[in-house]
Specification:
Length: about 100
């Protein structure tokens, strides 16, 4: 089956990233944009598609922005922020190690 195209304009790209950042499911995002769910799901699973890129970018952007704000607080001496950053760093190391293990 050939995957149909979904055309994304700048507004849809931005909204798609925001919905992904908020944790909406693929089916919900497809419904929001009135896209066919099966086509949207297939494009989201294709790492080379624009849909997949903007979903990943949205998730990354929200995490990166939160981490940068936390870093600013930590650099200012906020003890809680320093502790949270240390915890996130440990979690990141563990996650990266798990990603490199081949089962």
């Amino acid at each position: 089956m050939k995957i149909q195209k979904i055309i994304l304009n700048d507004e849809i790209r931005s909204e798609l990233e925001r919905l992904a950042a908020l944790g909406y499911r693929l089916e919900q995002m497809a419904m929001y944009f009135d896209f066919p769910v099966s086509v949207f799901r297939a494009l989201a699973a294709d790492d080379t598609s624009e849909v997949a890129y903007h979903i990943k970018r949205g998730k990354l952007t929200i995490k990166a922005n939160a981490d940068m704000e936390l870093l600013k607080l930590a650099e200012g001496g906020n003890i809680t922020a320093i502790q949270q950053l240390a915890k996130r760093e440990k979690e990141s190391v563990v996650s990266n190690l798990l990603d490199t293990i081949v089962f």
